[in-house]
Amino acid sequence: MATPGGSDDILRGRAWTFGDGISTDHIAPGRLFHLRTDLPELAKHVLEDANPEFAKRVKAGDLVVGGRNFGLGSSREHAPRIIKLAGVAAVLAQSFARIFFRNAINVGLPVLTCDTSAIEQWDDLEVDLAAGEVRDLTTGATVPFAPLPPVMLKILSDGGLVEHFRKYGEFHLPEG
Questions:
Q1: Which residue, of 80, 102, 132, 155, has the greatest Cβ tally within 10 A?
Q2: DSSP-derived 3-state class of residue 98
Q3: Any idea which of 9-13, 34-38, 150-154 has the lowest mean pLDDT?
Q4: Cβ–Cβ under 8 Å, residues 132 and 147
């Protein structure tokens, strides 16, 4: 992801749809807790309890589309990390658990709150982070979302909070 406002603020991918209440245990199964120190291996099992085909078939740039309360449950930071490691460009949902939302931003995974009810499995989507809209290229529909604050876009463009601090040596607020 590049600087906010750049062409990399446009994400394109196919939708993988999930319902309401996708928990961190659906994302990173607790039975695989022993893999928490091997995130690439754990990522091979991402969301398999919600859709057994997801981890095997997800492609770089795909988008996870959830319903209400995505990421509820424990505060496992590795849940958004393995979604990102699997190549997912962003997660769209009607609402997020607060800790999951913050952890996702911190690891550099865009999470966008919007009405996902009309998005179907395999729809081709285009997400404009700067403009705050999702365009369903399959149906022609446009779904608005509240654009992320500039500070969150900056953290995302830097690759997450750790990379942001490495780059600036401190918490750096964008000007303007």
A1: 80
A2: helix
A3: 34-38
A4: yes
Q: CA 103, CA 159: separation in Å to the nearest integer?
A: 13
Q: What is the pLDDT of residue 176?
A: 57
DSSP 34: G
Q: List beta partners, residue 90.
A: 63
CATH class label, 7-168: alpha beta
Q: Which residues contact 33 (CB under 8 A, 6 or more apart)?
A: none
Q: Which of 63-72, 89-98, 143-152, 166-175 has the lowest mean pLDDT?
A: 166-175
What pLDDT does 6 receive?
42
DSSP state of 9: G
Q: How far is CA 112 from CA 23, 30, 63, in A?
A: 17, 25, 11
Question: Whole-angstrom Cα distance, residue 131 to residue 162?
Answer: 26
The residue extents of the domains of the chain are: 7-168
Per the structure block, which two tokens stand in for 20? 């309401």
Task: For residue 134, list its beta bridge partners.
Answer: 127, 143
Give yes or no for residue 75 having a pLDDT over 80: no
